[in-house]
TrEMBL record:
PROSITE patterns: HTH_HXLR. It holds the Pfam family HxlR. Signal peptide: none annotated. Keywords: DNA-binding, Transcription, Transcription regulation. Residues 25-124 form the HTH hxlR-type domain. This is Transcriptional regulator. It comes from Pedobacter gandavensis.
Length: 124
């Protein structure tokens, strides 16, 4: 009796297109939206504060350049993770908060945080 997992009459076929191409991988697409040095931290800060203003974000992330912060916020807004509300006041006031889809990222960030804590514990 043989222990082969391939039946002899069954041919090995290669799929026409693999499901892990750069444009088709769900993980790659997700990381395009929330990846980078600052985005997850921004999402976490905005979630903790419920609503955040630009100056508050800049103070909490003192290592980030103002231009970089602006770019990261625009990308998160473009991708529907945060929404930006500008008030017609003097001086101008702009607030950022998570959208419904942005809120769904919070458990993902928590899982990654837990994984990192476990990884650090196991590799020490």
């Amino acid at each position: 009796m043989e222990n082969d997992t391939i039946i002899h009459n069954q041919g090995l076929t290669k799929p026409e297109k693999d499901d892990y191409s750069t444009n088709n991988c769900a993980v790659t697409n997700a990381l395009k939206i929330m990846g980078g040095k600052w985005k997850m931290l921004l999402i976490k800060i905005i979630a903790d504060d419920c609503v955040s203003r630009f100056g508050e974000l800049k103070r909490k992330m003192d290592d980030i350049a103002q231009t970089t912060l602006t770019i990261q916020l625009r990308e998160l807004e473009r991708d529907g993770i945060i929404c930006r509300k500008a008030y017609a006041e003097s001086p101008p006031r702009v607030e950022y908060k998570l959208t419904e889809i942005g809120i769904t990222l919070l458990p993902v960030i928590q899982v990654l945080t837990d994984w990192n804590d476990n990884y650090c514990r196991l590799t020490k």
